[in-house]
Amino acid sequence: MTDPAALSRLSLNQRTTASWSLPEAVQGCLYAGLGAIGIWREQLAEVGLDQACRLVAESGLRVSSLCRGGFFTDPEQAQTAEVRNREAIEEAAALNAATLVLVAGGLPPGDKDLGAARDRAVRAIERLVPYAQELGVNLGIEPMNPIYAADRGVVSTLAQALDIAERFDAADVGVVVDTFHVWWEPGVADQLQRAGQRIVSYQICDWITPLPADTLLARGMMGDGHIDFPTFSRSVARAGYRGDVEVEIFNADLWKAPPTWVVDTMIKRYLHLVQPYLGG
Questions:
Q1: Which one of 143, 145, 171, 250 is at 20 to 30 Å from 163 when CA atoms are compared?
Q2: pTM
Q3: C-alpha triplet 261, 49, 36: angle, nearest 5°
């Protein structure tokens, strides 16, 4: 029987069991003995914020993250994006989420200037920080693997994310460390050490090959791919991170599998590949 303390930091991101509604995911977490859940705004909208807050409060689960805000880079959508992100901040505050995950966004149609797109993302975050600060929400910038630079995330490395985050107080803006996105980054251990207290979320899944035709669904269960989770987790722990560890997997085959089997498998892999190396 698994020691409940061993699972106290493990969180299920809702995309890992995409067929589950928010109430089903909450119950799945409780049944499995997990300590936290990562909530997506789409599933949140299905039940409504008030009901979601009640579900979470009654469950005793922590909300390790709210996914997601951002998508700042299209100048024609800047005002709409700001409204959406302010709403996301309000939701994160109501849920007492550890962070609101921000994905910068890709290149607008016909645009090839990555630098300018990143600058627009920085300015958008600057506008959001006072409101997030007022509501007590930490904004977590998530660098995306470079395969998504054109369509999803012009911030591609942990170093780039930190360059942005360090413009602000660590209580207001941090970084999301997702193994899928940054495992390959040269000097990533040094960047994790640099990040220190700015690490607001540690998300895990594996890099599998061959990549599927839809690279958005290229994430694998820990242990099925190429990432050295013990070494990476030690580096995260050395940086001082003591928060939740969130399993976030986009994978068509896993989405077809029974969600309870997926959760059981992720627990086994976490206990073998990650939990022993987290320290503390």
A1: 250
A2: 0.97
A3: 40
Written as six digits, the tokens of 76 are 């024609």
Single-letter residue type at 256: K
Question: How far, CA to CA in Å, does 182 sit from each of 117, 163, 209?
Answer: 20, 15, 16
**Helix (H) / strand (E) containing 87:** helix 78-95
**Degrees to nearest 5, angle at CA 7 with 2 and 11:** 140
| Alpha carbon distance 61, 221 (integer Å) | 23
- Of 3.20.20.150, 3.40.50.720, 2.110.10.10, 3.90.420.10, the CATH number of 4-277 is 3.20.20.150
pLDDT at 3 over 80: no
* pLDDT per position as a tens digit, 97-147: 999 999 999 999 999 999 999 999 999 999 999 999 999 999 999 999 999
Could you give the 3-state DSSP secondary structure of residue 103?
strand
- Who's near 137: CB < 8 A, 6+ residues apart? 89, 92, 93, 97, 99, 100
Mean pLDDT (whole number) for 29-38: 98
CA-CA distance, 277 to 18, in Å (whole number)? 28
SS (H, E, C) 166-210: CCCCCCCEEEEEEHHHHCCCCCHHHHHHHHHHHEEEEEECEECCC
Three-class secondary structure of residue 54 per DSSP = helix
- Contacts (Cβ under 8 Å, ≥6 apart) of 101: 65, 66, 67, 68, 69, 70, 140, 142, 176, 201
**114-135 and 158-165 are packed helices; what angle lies between their axes, rounded to 10 degrees?**
50
Q: d(Cα 56, Cα 107) in Å, to the nearest integer?
A: 36
Secondary structure element (H or E) that encloses residue 101, with its range: strand 100-103
- Domain segments of the chain: what residues? 4-277
